Amino acid sequence: MELTVWGIITALVVGLIVGALGRLVVPGRQNMPMWMHMLIGVGAALLGTLIARASGFAETAGIDWRELMLQVLLAAVAVALVAGVGRRRHVTHR
């Protein structure tokens, strides 16, 4: 796998979009700053790409919808987990 500046920029942009989509998928209000959603999105995009490559479905022409859906699912799970931990923290400190 070749790592280029364009590849890093693309990964960051996709990660930001995945973070926003992950936030939209999770029901309810998340008490998290937007930068946290973006960070989760970048992490989910990278992890989703690694899983897709290991599973053998990352190499397609055009947009790989399975990889994108996996990334959004990972971001949604991470947003739900982080929002749940933050919600529990606020309840215990009252």
TrEMBL record:
PANTHER family: UPF0410 PROTEIN YMGE (PTHR33884:SF3)
Membrane association type: Multi-pass membrane protein
UniProt subcellular location: Cell membrane
The organism's taxonomic lineage, starting at the top: Bacteria, Bacillati, Actinomycetota, Actinomycetes, Micromonosporales
Record-level GO cellular component terms: plasma membrane
Native organism: Micromonospora rosaria
InterPro entries noted in UniProt: Transgly_assoc (IPR007341)
Name of the protein described by the UniProt record: Transglycosylase
The keyword Transcription is annotated on this UniProt entry: no
The UniProt record lists the keyword Cell membrane: yes
TM regions (residue ranges): 6-26, 38-56, 68-86
Superkingdom to which the source organism belongs: Bacteria
